[in-house]
Design brief:
Helices cover 49% and strands 15% of the residues. It is of the alpha/beta class and 455 residues long. The protein folds into two domains: 22-243, Serine Threonine Protein Phosphatase 5, Tetratricopeptide repeat; 256-454, Rossmann fold (3-Layer(aba) Sandwich). The radius of gyration is 22 Å and the shape is globular.
């Protein structure tokens, strides 16, 4: 499960500031509204096409960012009908200005349909050009004024431009239009309620915000938007014991194309190297290998690159198919599986000598099921090397449960909780050190790096 609405080790944590130069800043500093319009519909989300879109995806998976950008721009010039979908890929790659450039000529000539104008507006908003984004969406509303998709995008753009009052009107109109029982209309209501929750929260109305987050959960029980975590932040309900799988998958499918560059660049991410150093400092780790290993939440393969010298075989597991494609293309893994890590551990045909979980358990609050699965999946003397964000145990939630939701909407764990789990499931704590695996908003994020060995 890989490290906006909360962030992948980054994805966007909220901020009130949205200045015109926002495109130059890490996306972790943008408010959720600025990266909106991901409406969980199928019109712009296919990642398996055989044509130009498929080739862009293959280049993304292979880590060839520049090649993917160049291919998207060339394909858009040759096939006008793909401009919106290719612009979507460029947005995923963190290139909103180049995405806008694919659609702007069509819009200028009056040949952009409502869907293309929505993608144009998203790109313009991410580039800090909020008034132009609103202009594009106003044009889209002239083309299809009763479209829930247009209204959701328009409201989200108004939120990004700090016009919460008018945004609320757009989202309320979606609720009046999308009253049917179809999956699409349920998704539209869930998105509208979630955005209304964000809008009312920004206006310091937690009661109204909570009502809409709960309504979003009701229309989307899988909770792809993370409404449960937002409700916990508002203290409107207890924190969930883990982030929903659908939420994490949606989060990282959108983040995968720019994950490596953003993590190692903007966020100074050193997680896998720090875990490797901790493991190699443990007595017997280096001499007892190589291991049949599993990378839990493998992401794009950064941990595979770090630990490959110690692995005889390496299974990668991640909820995000897009992350899995990148991990498979890295060449560091014997096998990569898209799915839940607990199910993967239960289904493994043989046991492992090493389990790695770098920035994975930050999406799992209650670690009891994970330790129980590892107790069965690891060989005697097998190693578990992991990281999690550090809780100082000061909050009532951390004191009662051993974990809490931090300000970036990820879980943090106390050292006492981690040591108690180890003792209960037959693990020796070889080391438990504090380290900063990355920065966020230019501040180090303090984490625990644990090395445990099964008794």
């Amino acid at each position: 499960m890989s490290p906006r609405n909360a962030p992948p080790a980054d994805e966007p944590s909220p901020s009130a500031d949205l200045s015109p130069d926002s495109a130059a800043r890490p996306e972790a500093e943008l408010p959720p509204a600025a990266t909106a319009f991901h409406l969980f519909t199928d019109d712009i989300s296919s990642y398996e096409d055989d044509g130009p879109l498929g080739e862009v995806e293959r280049l993304i998976a292979a880590g060839d960012r520049e090649g993917a950008i160049a291919h998207a721009e060339a394909a858009a010039r040759e096939t006008e009908g793909l401009a919106a979908s290719l612009a979507h890929r460029l947005i995923d790659l963190g290139e909103p200005a180049r995405a806008a450039a694919l659609i702007e000529p069509l819009a200028a000539e009056g040949r952009a349909n409502a869907r293309a104008l929505i993608l144009l507006a998203r790109a313009l908003s991410l580039a800090g050009r909020h008034q132009e984004a609103l202009d594009a969406l106003n044009e889209a509303s002239f083309l299809d004024g009763r479209s829930a998709t247009v209204l959701l995008a328009l409201g989200s753009a108004r939120l990004a431009a700090e016009d919460a009052a008018r945004a609320i009107g757009d989202f309320e109109r979606v609720l009046r239009l999308s009253t049917g029982e179809s999956e699409r209309e349920a998704n539209e209501r869930a998105e509208a309620h979630f955005r209304l929750g964000e809008a009312w929260a920004s206006m310091d109305e937690p009661g109204r915000a909570a009502r809409h987050f709960k309504a979003s959960q009701a229309d989307d029980p899988a909770d792809r938007r993370g409404a449960g975590i937002r409700l916990a932040e508002l203290e409107a309900q207890p924190a969930p014991t883990r982030a929903s799988a659908a939420y994490v998958r949606a989060l990282f499918d959108g983040y995968a194309p720019r994950y490596d560059g953003h993590m190692t660049g903007a966020l100074s991410y050193r997680g896998p190297d720090i875990l490797l150093a901790a493991a190699e400092a443990a007595p017997d780790f280096s001499v007892d290998g190589p291991y049949d290993a599993v990378d839990l939440g493998c992401g794009t393969g950064l941990s595979g690159a770090a630990f490959r010298a110690h692995c005889r075989t390496l299974l990668g597991v991640d909820l995000s198919p897009r992350m899995c494609a990148a991990a498979e293309a890295s060449g560091f893994y014997t096998e990569v599986r898209a799915g839940d890590l607990l199910k993967a551990l239960d289904a493994a045909p043989s046991r492992f000598g090493l389990a790695i979980a770098c920035d994975t358990v930050i999406y799992l609050g209650d670690l009891e099921p994970l330790f129980a699965a590892l107790e069965k999946a690891l060989l005697p003397k097998g190693w578990f090397v992991f990281s999690t964000e550090k809780s100082d145990g000061a909050s009532e939630e951390a004191q009662s449960r051993g974990f809490e939701i931090g300000p970036a909407r990820r879980f943090r764990h106390t050292e006492a909780y981690l040591r108690a789990l180890a003792a209960r499931h037959g693990f020796e704590v070889v080391s438990m050190d504090a380290a900063a695996l990355r920065t966020e908003k230019r501040m180090p994020v303090e984490s625990f790096v644990g090395v445990m060995r099964k008794s």
